[in-house]
Design goal:
heterodimer; A: mainly beta; five-stranded antiparallel sheet; B: mainly beta; seven-stranded mixed sheet; 55% strand
Chain lengths: 111, 117
């Protein structure tokens, strides 16, 4: 089976940098994705890593280490609107679109 | 606007009722999904339809019955639900490549909040 672990809550100050970690166990691995979900809204795709290393998209970066089964999402220059839940998700080799999500990390950005 | 529209946004139903959730995607994708989101639990994959064929049924109770009449529409028929079925039900879509491996991005609708009383 698949399981993902991430912290349940993180609080950070506006303008700061925050890192949200994700460790996973999966029976096959195609990539690690990150999604953002604001309260009452739909999860929206942020980033995807299939290979080791850092992917940067504006203020957001995502890192993957396949040997450690570990990844993180880095948010820089935090803004109040970044307050949301962040989910890591893994695609595995066990089916067409088998994507398993973590429990999510609720990020609160404070002034 | 994510390109995936769900109705109704909120639904309250009794345990003996029959209702349906509807999903429509305007992205030209060929795969659609139902996920269940409960408080403090991971997003749970319920059903996957790829090219209008159900390819995943994740041990979901038979009181949930999906229907995919075409690649743009997906329904979740509900009957004799239990209070523990109260949750946010999310529809999503993606583009499946010819190899059967989907693209990296799943596009979600805003969900239908279901309360079973």
């Amino acid at each position: 089976g698949q399981s993902l672990e991430q912290p349940s809550e993180v609080t950070a100050v506006e303008g700061a940098i925050v890192q949200i970690n994700c460790t996973y166990q999966t029976s096959g691995f195609y990539g690690l994705s990150w999604y953002q979900q604001h309260d009452g809204g739909a999860p929206t795709f942020l980033s995807y890593n299939a290979l080791d290393g850092l992917e940067e998209t504006g203020r957001f970066s995502s890192f993957l280490s396949r040997s450690d089964s570990y990844g993180y999402l880095l948010l820089q220059e935090l803004q109040m609107k970044d307050s949301a839940s962040y989910f890591c998700a893994v695609r595995d080799s066990g089916g067409y679109q088998k994507v398993t999500f973590g429990t999510g990390t609720k990020l609160q950005v404070i002034p | 606007e994510t390109g995936v529209t769900q109705t109704p946004r909120h639904l309250v139903m009794g345990m003996t009722n029959k209702k349906s959730l509807k999903c429509e995607q305007h992205l030209g994708h060929n795969a659609m999904y139902w996920y269940k989101q409960s408080a403090k639990k991971p997003l749970e994959l319920m059903f996957v339809y790829s090219l209008e064929e159900r390819v995943e049924n994740n041990s979901v109770p038979s009181r949930f019955s999906p229907e995919c009449p075409n690649s743009s529409h997906l329904f979740l028929h509900l009957h004799t639900l239990q209070p523990e079925d109260s949750a946010l039900y999310l529809c999503a879509s993606s583009q499946v490549q010819e190899t059967g491996i989907s693209g990296n991005t799943i596009y979600f609708g805003e969900g239908s909040w279901l309360t079973v009383v």
